[in-house]
Write a structure and sequence with these properties.
Elements: H1 3-26, E1 40-50, E2 53-64, E3 68-69, E4 71-81, E5 87-102, H2 107-110, E6 114-125, H3 130-139, E7 144-148, E8 151-163, E9 167-170, E10 175-176, E11 179-190
Antiparallel strand pairs: 1-2, 1-11, 2-4, 3-5, 4-5, 5-6, 6-8, 7-8, 9-11, 10-11
Keywords: Membrane, Transmembrane, Transmembrane helix
Transmembrane segments: 12-34, 40-60
Length: 191
């Protein structure tokens, strides 16, 4: 290969790499933390007590639509410290097929509507924790029914107690419908 051919090839490679880099950087505007297409993205974490049991959770949700929709997804990890010394951990995946934003339990504190899940399924892992996770979710205000080991069905409006307005919410030290939160942090973004 001649010296001139090597320079041309080197220039072509540099220009190609720069073009690829510009394309990748320029196209990231449509990529979001959880994927493309979602209107709402939420991250949250909390600790507290309910019915004498200590609990904690963290997770994220996405919703497609402005104030209602038929697509949503949540991944939530929960742990429960039961009064009898038993500890339960639930990994839950919410496949949401109907949601709305409406006045909920946090509205008085945030001035914003809450996300309500109206239909869908929740996959619980491990499956042997399904009944306990269903009881915990029901006590927290979810309208769920165990339909199979590892599967819950959402039967009607269930207040997620997550505000449907962009912002950071620090709601620690409050009690909502019998649930005492030691710590509650919520981050909401909207595209």
């Amino acid at each position: 290969m001649s010296q001139k051919s090597g320079k041309v090839l080197g220039t072509v490679l540099v220009v190609s790499m720069l073009s690829l880099l510009l394309f990748l950087v320029g196209s990231t505007w449509f990529v979001s933390a959880y994927g493309a297409g979602e209107t709402w993205q939420l991250g949250f974490a909390g600790t507290g007590s309910l019915l004498g049991a200590g609990f904690g959770f963290w997770g994220w949700c996405t919703f497609t639509g402005q104030s209602s929709g038929s697509v949503g997804d949540c991944q939530i990890s929960q742990y429960l410290h039961m009064g009898n010394g038993q500890n339960i951990q639930c990994e839950t995946h919410f496949d949401i097929t109907g949601w709305t934003a409406q006045t909920g339990v946090l509205t008085i504190f945030t001035g914003a509507p809450d996300f309500f899940v109206n239909s869908g399924t929740i996959t619980v892992n491990p499956a042997n924790a399904t009944q306990t996770c269903a009881l915990f979710l029901s006590a927290a205000g979810f309208n769920v029914v165990v339909t199979a080991p590892g599967t819950l069905t959402i039967n009607g409006p269930s207040d997620m107690a997550l505000p449907a307005a962009p912002g950071h919410y620090s709601l620690s030290g409050m009690t909502l419908e019998g649930v005492s939160y030691t710590e509650l942090q919520i981050q909401v973004s909207q595209k």
